[in-house]
Amino acid sequence: MENYFFNLIPKEELEKLPYLPTLVDLLEKVNRDYADRPAVSDMVNTYTYRQYYERIGKRRALIESLNLSKGAKIAVFDRNTIDAMELFFAITTAGYTVVMLPAQLPAPAVAGSVKKFDIEAIFVRDEFMPMCEALPIKVLRAGETSDKFVPCASVKKEDLACIYFTGGTTGAPKGVMLSQGAMMRGAFNGIFMPDSVLKPHRYIALLPMSHIFGIIRGFLSCIYTGALIYSCEDIKGMIGKIPAIKPTCLVVVPGMAEILLGLVKMYGVGFLGGELHQLICGAANVPPKLIAMFKQFGITLLEGYGLTETANLVSGNANVEDRPESVGQPYPAQELKLVNGELWIKGENVMMGYYNDPQATAEAMEDGWLKTGDLARFDEDGFLYITGRIKNIILLKNGENVSPEAIEEHFYMDARVRDCLVKEVEKDGEMVIGIEILPRMDSFENQDPQFVGAELNKLVDEVNAKLPSYMQIAVTKIRTEDFKRTGAMKVDRKNN
Fold it and tell me: pLDDT digit string (tens) for 194-213?
């Protein structure tokens, strides 16, 4: 339902924001349309879009001087700095493929990535240089550039632009190949939100650019609309600078949203600068109560759904108050269907495949359709609901299949639950359904742990009364420490 999104923003703005097929087209547009607007800042140096364009051109000149093979893979091993923001565009608009390496990678993983993805050159942050100096490729400092300017190369929509890490639909770490067109479709999808999108928005690059949500919605969609993006080398340090930056919109995962909510409760909504009206939240389950809590402070938390394999953005929900459990309507230029309850997707946003892994690609793709591994349903108005992951299904001895997410959803409706994890556990020699609950302690007004446990056990009883007998929880654990989390701050199901 394309009008769902096209009707969110003023018609005169939509006419100025056509879908662009390549990152070269995007860079040329922003230099032309937003030349004098501030583009990127580290709170010391701020560069306009014209200056940003020129600086990227000088980095392209340096890259061209390396004499790499056509379409070579070039890695960036940095934090969310202006260097990284420039290198991403310099590499992809010079006709090469960028691999944004997560800043937390240890040395063996960096070396392994270089080999696995046939990386020919790497730009490295100074603090990471000791890990990279012995790599058998061209190693350059992230801050290196040239005095010359080289224009953008000629690239096509179908050309490989990026390789991004993912667990994939079958669990093992893989490299997702995304074309120029796929990245741009994701970036275009990200511009839609219920507001003027061309007014001077201010963002902070809180999510790593090595994560698909961070690069697409936290960076490229912002560039698309001429926003100002503040770099972020350290999340904890940057959060303290929010009052000075006065962001108008932030892109976060639920764990970050929880942190911001706690700070608002402690210091008041003014801590967020006074101009923040929207949070774009994704990459993990968004509890409906989190949406309601931010609404109390005049902030709309918008959720959506996507995968690395789909250039992130598949659906978005601008009706969070009416349908807080839904991940929204599908974005344009895609086909979605359910096959035995599993969501399949086809469209120009879908990956080219997994790098050098034809078997995994064949398992995940069928006739151009991506098999997401997500269980889903649609309501009568076309809103999408994700009900679980196929790989997380618990198979009981009586043959029943249990989706842990379907049980967890009941607990996320309660404001006292920050996070939870349903899994199979042993009790009296048999495997049963268990749950671990991480309470939101400020909801209990400093009550003692015994009281908290009693209240949450009552909640378990209430949820069990709504569930069929085979899905009911038999073991409850109240956590006093946070869950182990993934890089996207999701609860790590494997290691908890």
Answer: 889 999 999 999 999 999 99
User: What pTM did the predictor assign?
Assistant: 0.87
The token pair at 479 is: 């956590």
Considering Cα of 95, then 96, then 99, then 100, what sign does the dihedral take? negative
Distance between CA 56 and CA 24 in Å, rounded? 11
Q: Which residue has the higher pLDDT, 430 or 364?
A: 364
pLDDT number for residue 254: 87
Q: Is residue 300 located within the same domain as residue 311?
A: yes
Q: What Cα–Cα distance (Å) separates residue 33 from each residue in 49, 226, 227, 390?
A: 9, 8, 12, 45
CATH label of the domain that carries residue 2: 3.40.50.12780
- 8 Å CB contact between 349 and 189: yes
pLDDT reading at 51 higher than 50: yes
Residue 335: C-alpha distances to residues 1, 168, 268, 318, 352 (Å): 11, 20, 43, 20, 16
In the predicted structure, residue 170 carries a pLDDT above the cut 60:
no
Choose from 118-122, 253-257, 315-319, 463-467 the range with maximum mean pLDDT: 118-122
Cross-sheet strand order for the sheet of 300-305: 249-252, 278-281, 300-305, 315-317, 329-330
Overall domain count for the chain: 2
Tell me which residue range forms the domain holding 216: 1-22+187-350+362-391
Please indicate, yes or no, whether residues 298 and 421 belong to a single structural domain of this protein: no
Q: C-alpha angle 21/26/27, rounded to 5°?
A: 140
Does 207 map to a domain?
Answer: yes
| Domain co-membership, 420 together with 369 | no
My answer on whether 214 and 305 are in the same domain is yes
Q: Are residues 374 and 401 in the same domain?
A: no
Question: The domain that contains 414 carries what CATH number?
Answer: 3.30.300.30
Q: Is residue 174 part of a domain?
A: no
Least confident of 114-118, 131-135, 169-173: 169-173
Residue pointed to by tokens 């990152």: 23
Q: Are residues 377 and 417 in the same domain?
A: no
Gyration radius of the chain over CA positions: 23
CB distance 121 to 75 below 8 Å = yes
pLDDT given for residue 49 in this prediction: 98
Residues 316 and 253 in one domain: yes
